[in-house]
Amino acid sequence: MDLYDALADKAVGGEPLTREEALAVLATPEDDLLDMIAAGFRVRRHFFGRRVKLNFLVNLKSGLCPEDCSYCSQRLGSKAEVLKYTWLKPEEATSTAGVGIAAGASRVCLVASGRGPTDRDVDRVSTTISEIKKSHPDVEVCACLGLLSDGQADRLCQAGADAYNHNLNTSDATYASICSTHTYDDRVDTVERVKHAGLSPCSGLIAGMGESDDDLVDVVFALRELAPDSIPVNFLIPFKGTPLAREWNLTPQRCLRILAMVRFVCPGAELRIGGGREIHLRGMQSLALHLANSIFLGDYLTSEGQAGQDDLQMIRDAGFTVEGADPEQAPDTHHDLVKVRKRGAGTTEVANA
Ligand code: SF4
């Protein structure tokens, strides 16, 4: 039996991976990549079958953040030309959420920039949550509003929120090098408050910020300890105008190794491919679905993603099904595929290379 099959057996059998085993997954040689994915797929299938959960982001408040997280386009001093606006009205947020739900999302993620919400902000978001729940009782609502203070998680829970997202992002040892305005412990504290209030905890990481394999294993082992129900793995989007704009150090293979490591270490958690999926995994996105069981549909907070229609087509082409969707109702995937040539020989337009 090879290493990856042994790791899959351990993961399915509930035996925790050791640190050395997690590091070995990150060091998988190119020639063994498909064996690693096949073993990871066995674990994914055991817990989630061939289902893909679709999550839809609604950016309630964009930019103008007083915090200095170096990976973020909305940070203090960011020169990134992203949309900047203050709180959407609850009716605007509810109607935007409806677009994602109509396209197949079974979870709506309500996100706002900032260090954390005021009690007035929690009231505002609570109204939006109740409105969404009134019209879509089966859809999960997750809030992501930053660091929470006393009683705020309980109030979101009472308003009908199902989950709260707050990512650890990177290891405790490197946290101070990516942010100076709050600490790793502040983030852990919010995840603990979320759990205590009875909300489903969602917490993940960002890869590609120059971290070592040890840092990645540290943060994933810390997540295993916190036991979130869902783990978003984001791949850094190096926005121009942010301190990490030049950090283009991920390859599709590296992204697959990271996803596989998270799948083996936290086998029963919903593993979501977060931001950066299209620009870092590129043609390997559908291979990554064999490890992850969840993605964001369409656009991210401040950057555009693949068209939602193309996400749905990718899922279907790879042999997966959208969680909660009726397969009979799957959209026509042959939209606009045939394009009549209008450039190159015989025309005045130059052909694309
Ligand atoms: S607190 Fe959130 S919005 Fe503000 S800079 Fe950090 S990640 Fe960005």
Q: What Rg do the Cα atoms give?
A: 20 Å
Largest sheet: 10 strands, parallel
Rounded average pLDDT: 94
Q: Approximately how much helix is present in the residues?
A: 25-40%
The count of β-strands is: 10
Give the count of structural domains: 1
Termini, distance in Å?
46 Å
Number of helices: 13
Structural class determined from secondary elements: alpha/beta
User: Could you state the order of secondary-structure elements as H and E?
Assistant: HHHEHEHEHEHHEEHEHEHHEHE
Family: Belongs to the radical SAM superfamily. Biotin synthase family.
Protein name: Biotin synthase
Binding site for [4Fe-4S] cluster: 65, 69, 72
Catalytic activity: (4R,5S)-dethiobiotin + (sulfur carrier)-SH + 2 reduced [2Fe-2S]-[ferredoxin] + 2 S-adenosyl-L-methionine = (sulfur carrier)-H + biotin + 2 5'-deoxyadenosine + 2 L-methionine + 2 oxidized [2Fe-2S]-[ferredoxin]
